[in-house]
Design brief:
42% helix, 2 domains, seven-stranded mixed beta sheet, alpha/beta
Amino acid sequence: MKKLSRILCLVLVLAMAMSLVAVQAAAENQHFDKLTLEFVPSKDADVIIAGTANLPELVKAEMAKLGYDIDEVDITVGTSYDATGEAMSAGTIDIGWLPGGTYALYSDDTEVILTATRNGLSNDSTNPADWNGEANATQKNGPQVTYYRSLIYATPSEYGKTLAAKVNAGEELTWEDLDQATWAVQKTSSSAGYIYPTLWLMDKFDKKISDLSNVVPLDSGYGTAFSYAAAEQVDIIVCYADGRNDYEASWILPVDQKDETGKQGMGRSESIWNELNVIGVTDGIYNDTVAISKESQYYTPELIEALQNCFINIISSEEGKEIFSVYSHAGYAVAKDSDYDGARAALAVVAG
């Protein structure tokens, strides 16, 4: 009987040990070698890389809490909006920060998981003259919003000044006025840099950017547009509404200096608020996305939920807010594909 009792005790101990091993195995995090993140070049690439330098460690720490150990988090900046969309379509990038128009273009191969929220601006007027001059310098102190606007800016070139003077005097621009100007625009999938300025032209003149006589297409982002403006190489640039905030300091720095974010000085002597005048205001644009490649190993419901929580948790911290301020993102909200039906409609109009 004693021998039987000892055997039963031994069996019980073994069973408990096996159960403990099973619990520990179940509690172990799932392991991944690498997560690739890419940002579109809506800001200078070196500024984005510097601003997001601490993001990989934050992502690894948050994902570990959520049950996933990732050895490496790699951050890159695409050479263009389309390059990032194409890399995600091919599955070489897992997660991308895409403007609404770019997402709409590549949504067959990607899926939105988050929408950015941002601090609204102190100015949301649809009258362009209300945006001009030091007295109207915009502040990023408005309520959280899920949209932003694109602005059409006249540069300090000789003809740019002519356009600005007309708008600031309360006069309406004609198609002939705009067609004489040299425009710098972004890639065709850029919401603020192409799609919505095109819609603005269609609404006012039943014309498109493609109908303009003098267009300079840019591949390298808004930094190039502002440098062209400062050098008076173009008469009009198009950019998101808080673009002047981002380039205010570098605008008046000598060309051999950089501002604290790494932007190259542009050598102007006057304030950007006085020299870069708004001559057009577009409708609201639904905010940027965080999207996942459908070819990614992370493309499962469980991992998508973990990634959503990961980035929401990061941007809720002070360090995270500082990191994503490079994109003017102040928060993230869970999103669905249908949120961007309007962006698809806009893209179709522009392409048609």
